[in-house]
Amino acid sequence: MATVSTVPVRNYDIPALRQLDVAHHLPAQSSYGLQVAMGGSRIITHAQGSTLYDGDGQAILDGMAGLWCVNVGYGRPELVEVAARQMAELPFYNTFFRTATVPPIELAAKLAGLLGGDLQHVFFNNSGSESNDTVFRLVRTYWSMKGEPQRTVFISRHNAYHGSTVASASLGGMDYMHVQGGLPIPGIEHVMQPYHFGEAFGEDAEAFATRAAQAIEDRIIAVGPENVAAFIGEPVQGAGGVIIPPPGYWPKVEAICRKYGILLVADEVICGFGRLGEWFGFQHYGIRPDIVSMAKGLSSGYLPISATGVSHEIVEVLRASGEDFVHGYTYSGHPVAAAVALRNIQIMEDEALIDRTREDTGPYLAQALQRLAAHPLVGEVRSLGLIGAVEIVAEPGTNQRHGQKSGGSGGQAGPIVRDACIARGLMVRAIRDSIVMSPPLVITHAEIDQIVDTIHAALDASADALSALG
Q1: Can you give the three-state secondary structure of the chain, one letter per residue?
Q2: Cα diameter, the chain
Q3: Would you say 132 and 327 are in contact if contact means Cβ atoms under 8 Å apart?
Q4: How many CA atoms lie less than 13 Å away from 235 in the CB half-sphere?
Q5: CA 159 to each of CA 194, 282, 286, 431: distance values in angstroms, whole numbers, following the listed order
Q6: Residue 9: predicted pLDDT
Q7: How far apart, in whole angstroms, are the C-alpha atoms of residue 443 and residue 182?
Q8: Quick one: which of 175, 145, 172, 165 has its CA closest to 265?
Q9: Strands 153-157 and 228-233
């Protein structure tokens, strides 16, 4: 059931705000024509726990934790208090002039402990996109300083998402993003994704893991190992559709990187901070990356902050060069954002949210999703920790998409079912022909049941519209 908000709510003039939204505000990754046609965006006014409230008074269970990020839930007074205290003491100073402030130093030390092993150094940014931009420049700078400047090529995966800036969108493998702005930039190669349901339906999972990993090695050989700088991948592809790789895939990928002396980068922007039931996704899969990008759950979205964890070996090369690493942002290591992130991590520790995700709510979500597996419109349900997906199909027991019979390529089913979910008070995301979810780590069993029951009702209500696609 929806949590009752205890937050004082201002009396907003919602119609006027929607007019201003159309007149002046350009939302992220949106159709601005659709924004006008809809008369403005849905305006979220407040939230509590796992529940959002919009300007029309509708309570909406947030099955996406904002944008994969509000891990500790909404309405945390502890985070408000620590932000106010840090603002009063020192609202801002930069890290450019051989200076630092207290919170980012303490946060870097804390993150080094959570990352473990050789990942003992941290560079701060403001978003996941910026974290992966830092990866891009850091990796190429490292190889240049190491005396191998020809190592510039990154290998990534089709349908991967690494951000929206020029470098991070290029690292990603989203074709529709590459169309805008003349991307990808040179020096980035994309290989097959480990999407078993979509690309290897009916194939043995172990054989597919080997084949998907082999695609990386084949591309390394084609490009020339001496030219390859790094492989980058999300432990679980989030925005690509919650693509959970088959068992054995990640150890095989790590072994390939070690075989050719290539850096392994784990993009933990979504998977980090408990999403998979460990602090980081690479820990779930038992691998050791050289660089880790992170954001989102780092502050549970309460303030913009991201980080790039770097191995000691890489940092030693930079130190030995004697050169500046001429990269950074005005707000790198912002003291207020860092203070909030530290307190956010403490909340996760105090409330054992990572253990709870791994041992309780994650398994409960997996069990609850099985109630959808027999639905005639569902081809597969999958989840790991508190991230999951429901694949929508035209024929049970297949991966055939709605619209393919009439010559289309599919991809229209997800938005139809998503809109039906939102109309019924559940915020989920549509990615082509799937519904994906990543609820706050404070989600309850009753709220998980509400997610699953609402998706079931939305599928039933969407049957005629889906059938009309062909």
Answers
A1: CCCCCCCCCCCCCHHHHHHHHHHHCCCCCCCHHHHHHCCCCCCEEEEEECEEEECCCCEEEECCHHHHCCCCCECCHHHHHHHHHHHHHCCCCCCCCCCCCHHHHHHHHHHHHHHCCCEEEEEEECCHHHHHHHHHHHHHHHHHHCCCCCCCEEEEECCCCCCCCHHHHHHCCCHHHHCCCCCCCCCEEEECCCCHHHHCCCCCHHHHHHHHHHHHHHHHHHHCHHHEEEEEECCCECCCCCECCCCCHHHHHHHHHHHHCCEEEEECCCCCCCCCCCCCHHHHHCCCCCEEEECHHHCCCCCCCEEEEEEHHHHHHHHHHCCCCCCCCCCCCCHHHHHHHHHHHHHHHHCCHHHHHHHHHHHHHHHHHHHHHCCCCEEEEEECCCCEEEEECCCCCCCCCCCCCCCCCCCCHHHHHHHHHHHCCEECEEECCEEEECCCCCCCHHHHHHHHHHHHHHHHHHHHHHHCCC
A2: 66
A3: no
A4: 30
A5: 10, 19, 24, 11
A6: 76
A7: 41
A8: 172
A9: parallel
- In whole angstroms, give the CA distance from residue 65 to residue 71: 6
In whole angstroms, how large is the CA radius of gyration of the chain? Answer: 22
What is the value of pTM for the model shown? 0.95
Query: How confident is the model at residue 368, as a pLDDT?
Result: 98
Strands 429-431 and 434-437, sheet pairing: antiparallel
pLDDT-based confidence at residue 108 (cuts at 50, 70, 90): very high
Alpha-carbon gap, residue 189 to 174, rounded angstroms? 13
Q: How many residues does the chain have?
A: 470
Spell out the residues 6+ positions from residue 264 whose beta carbon is closer than 8 angstroms to its own. Answer: 230, 231, 253, 254, 257, 258, 287, 288, 289, 290, 291
> Would you state the structure tokens that stand for residue 143, as one six-digit string?
């190889």
pLDDT tens-digit series, residues 290-299? 999 999 999 9
pLDDT of 4 > 50? The answer is no
User: Among candidates 349, 396, 395, 406, which has minimal Cα distance to 374?
Assistant: 396
Write out pLDDT tens, residues 417-438.
Answer: 999 999 999 999 999 999 999 9
Q: What integer best gives the mean pLDDT of the chain? A: 96
Percent of the chain with pLDDT over 70: 98
- To the nearest 10°, the Cα dihedral for 72, 77, 78, 82? 120
